[in-house]
Amino acid sequence: MGRCKHCGGEVGEGELFCGNCGTRLSEETTKEAAGAAVDVAEQTADTEPEESQAESPEPETTAQTEQDGNEAPRGVAEETTQTATAESAVRTAAPQERAGKKKKGGLFAIIGAAVLALLLIGFGLRTALKTTEPVGQRFLKAQLEILEREGKVFDAADKVFENGFSSDFLLTAKLSESRMIALSRSGILSESGMRILRDGIRARFYLGKKFEKAVLNLEFASGENPVLNADCFIDPDRLGFKIPQQSEKVYVTRYPEVLKEMGSDARISTSLFAELRFPKELGRASAKRYGKLLADAITRNNLEVEKRSYRSHVLKPELKHSLDKDYTVYSWEPQAAELERLFRNIADAMEKDSELAAWFDRRQEIGEQFAQAMGVSQGQGAKFSDLADTLRDNAETYAENLEERKFAWKLVTEGKEVRAILLQLDGGDTTLLCYECDTDKDKLYRGLSLPGFMLTEKRDREKSGYYGTVAGRVYWDYDTKEFALKYNNLDFKKGSVLGLPCGKYRLNVNDGGSAAELKFEVRDEGGFSYYELKNDYGSFTLKASKSGSATLPEGEEVNIDDELLEGNVPQRRISDFISEL
Question: pTM score, two decimals?
Answer without folding.
Answer: 0.70
